[in-house]
Amino acid sequence: MPSEHIFEQILTVEQMRDAEQRIFDAGTPVFELMQLAAGRAAEWVRRIAAGRSVTILCGPGNNGGDGYVMAHRLANAGLSVQIVAPEPPKTDAAKQARELWGSAVLTSGGKAQGEVFVDCLFGSGLTRPLSGAHALLLRDLAGRHQIAIALDMPSGIASDTGALLNEKLPCFDVTLSLGAWKFAHFMLPGREKMGTLRLVRIGIDRVEGAVELLQKPKLTGPKSDAHKYTRGLGVIVGGAMTGAGRLAAEAAMRGGAGYIKLCPQDTAAGTNPALVEDAGDLEPIVTDKRADAVLVGPGLGRDDVAKARLNTALSSAKPLVLDADALVILKPAMLADDQPVLVTPHDGELDALCRSFSVIADGRRDRAQALARAADIVVLAKGPDTVIAAPDGRMVLAGPAPSWLSVAGSGDVLAGIALSRMANGSDPFTAACEAVWLHGEGARLCGAAFTPLELAHNVSGALARCV
């Protein structure tokens, strides 16, 4: 059955500022919110430090103000704390925080000694490179401490894109995001600098139109009176290269649907007794009233036969998953109105789709959203920072999955899972979210250096964790 999702929002710098401003407009002073956020972050630092000495690098803005408040809380908790502040506070709230600290501050890091380092130099609003002096100070302090923690965003990383604004930025063990997730927490190359991520909640309300972080789906098992058709029949339209279709089928059979049928282009091989193969006339198979969803693309090819098989699938009026070669030969005129469609492109296929649909945008996130709107389809733009975009503006960003997924055939497995979820009753957007999570979890269950077939076989184990 379809899942129920619990989402966490990911905000741009502008969205975060607006959300905080609504808190201020409701009567909460800036310094009061600072004390709330920094106090909760300080509790994380206290636990991580476990009695060890702490050095906090404070900048001139409110991120530095958070650092002063943290220092005050940690010192009151009995920890040895010192502050390095190369510049004095400039905002009213930061000045209040400096007064709250009330103790000496080092203006350079040469004499700073400690075991845990906390970066509060600049927060998520930074868009320009750090000065040479600031970058050197940051690297020096991070390098001389056993543990490095970043508050909200490591200094020198662009919050909205994950871009590194400076070279040789240090890596952190933990990053504590304040109020809401930011895009850089999950986007390369910035996310590789952040270590373990933790969210410090400060009462930020849900922001309309915000991107969501993919969460573990909540699935239900089959009903007591279920049979293979009520659980969903998914059809895979095979092509000239048979292996890709069979990989997709192996995953689809373990993704929750009750019946998966593979339609090879030529004679059925019948290598798996659990898989139904039908190499007969394609049209009556995909239009069968019992069929709930159709996948076309893995191993399809790009010749005239492949185009004809794609057109047959498109004319079935069934919910569709389009992957691989189908994305390269797909043209706007081939899509029917109001037909539920999920496409699963990698970056090269996403480029091809954007050209076909005359979409001009930069970056996977913006291209996926623009394509979804232009073509009225759901776009699962897969990669190291996978994005799922719906025509109505909804967007989900997936957290990091194991990098071992970078293996030939992994995309076929993902497409098979998506087919199974759609055949089981999920709409294309929900099915995409479910498939991405199950795909990543299947990889975690595999461990290191797995084959795509091993990944497909672990889909059922991933599914079991959601039921």
What does this structure look like?
This protein has two domains: 8-211, 3-Layer(aba) Sandwich (Rossmann fold); 233-464, UDP-N-acetylmuramoyl-L-alanine:D-glutamate ligase. It is elongated, with a radius of gyration of 26 Å. It has helices at residues 13-25, 30-49, 62-76, 92-101, 132-143, 242-252, 282-286, 304-314, 325-329, 347-356, 363-375, 410-423, 428-446, 452-457, 459-464; strands at residues 8-11, 54-58, 81-84, 116-120, 147-151, 174-178, 181-182, 196-200, 211-213, 233-237, 259-263, 276-277, 293-296, 320-322, 341-343, 378-381, 387-389, 395-397. Helix 2 (30-49) crosses helix 3, helix 10 (347-356) packs across helix 11 and helix 12 (410-423) packs across helix 13 (428-446). 36% of the residues lie in helices and 15% in strands. With 467 residues, the protein is α/β, with parallel strands linked by helices.
Give the arrangement of secondary structure elements.
Elements: E1 8-11, H1 13-25, H2 30-49, E2 54-58, H3 62-76, E3 81-84, H4 92-101, E4 116-120, H5 132-143, E5 147-151, E6 174-178, E7 181-182, E8 196-200, E9 211-213, E10 233-237, H6 242-252, E11 259-263, E12 276-277, H7 282-286, E13 293-296, H8 304-314, E14 320-322, H9 325-329, E15 341-343, H10 347-356, H11 363-375, E16 378-381, E17 387-389, E18 395-397, H12 410-423, H13 428-446, H14 452-457, H15 459-464
Helix pairs in contact: 2-3, 2-4, 3-4, 6-12, 10-11, 12-13
Number of strands: 18
By secondary-structure content and strand pairing, the structural class works out as alpha/beta
Rough outline: elongated
How much is the radius of gyration in Å? 26 Å
Average the pLDDT over all residues and give the rounded result: 95
CATH superfamily of the largest domain: Ribokinase
Total number of helices: 15
User: Which oligomeric state applies?
Assistant: single chain
The number of domains is: 2
Q: What is the percent of helical residues?
A: 25-40%
| CATH fold annotation of the largest domain | UDP-N-acetylmuramoyl-L-alanine:D-glutamate ligase
Query: How are the strands ordered across the major sheet?
Result: 7-1-9-18-17-16-15-14-13-10-11-12
The CATH architecture designation of the largest domain is: 3-Layer(aba) Sandwich
Main sheet specs = 12 strands, mixed
